[in-house]
Structure prediction request, 368 residues.
Amino acid sequence: MRQDQSFDATPSATVAIRRGAGLRLSTLVATALLLSACAGSGGASAPAESAGAATEAPAASGGAAAGGYPDRPIDFIVPFSAGGPTDTVTRLVADPMSKTLGQQIVVKNVEGAGGTLAAGEVAAATPDGYTVLMHHIGMSTAPTLYKDLPYKPLEDFKTIGLVTEVPMTIIGNNDFEPTTLQELVDYVKANKEDVTYANAGIGAASHLCGLLFQSAVDTKVTEVPYDGTGPALTDLVGGQVNFMCDQTTNTTGQITGGKVKAYAITSPERNPALPDVPTTTEAGLPDLKVNVWHGLYVPKDTPDEVVQALTDALKAALKEQSVIDKFAELGTTPVSEDQANPEAHTERLQSEIELWKPIIEEAGVTAP
Prediction:
């Protein structure tokens, strides 16, 4: 399903899963994720906004960009619904990037198949720089989760640069009985047949985090998949499901607004935006640590000059104080400048594909 909406900005505009690995797998997962985090620096549809501005466009050569890139609006494709964390990250950088590029950026939400529908669409798009994908950690897990994946992440795309790395929060609805992470663990073990865990679908960050949680506590609960974390979070707030794990970019406002209860954050240290939320280590699950990274992609034959123009615009966006401040409010930060480039992005993608492959295979996770 696809939804999009655009506007002209002025300068002031803005599984099936199989149990088996248990605590041994949890330790392996935690160790691998910690190493990954140290090495490096993602539902029901709603309209997504876009941003643009009339500034001078950088010149580019090759393909459709021969007359000067960009000379028309650019589509940013988000694999999940409007209002979700990946959509939020995309819109935060779209406005300043459009100012640098001198063209409108239209954010379009193409949901389905754990983000692979959107990625496949971009892989097959005309390689002219006018179709750009924002994706998260799911880009590295899809090759293992989906046996008939219609694209190869390392071969069918060029990377633009990493954007941000976001910690996850374990949250529950306000009527759910447990009040601490340890109480949640005890409750889940005692009531596993009745506990419901919401996620954004197979391969989504919320699904992966939930998988790690269940492995860490050696207990399987009933998973309730949604078409993105937006509707999942809505049902959590409404009490239709018990708990979930989602990125701070999607949950910080809900937590600080008292709409959900927070059990822990999956980062090594407490987050300034959520100073009262303990880390998983502090709360009793030291083996559960995971961050979600985001990056931009274009089709593989996109001219290098176009890739460079997009990378330059991304770097400029991540330096804007308004972007830095907004990311901070959401519990994250932009990546450093040396990560906002194709080389660092490709290295991260390759390392994470290698990281997740044995973990997913051992856990027995498959996409339907």
The first helix runs from residue 22 to 39. The CA atoms of residues 68 and 223 lie 49 Å apart. The first strand starts at residue 2 and ends at 4.
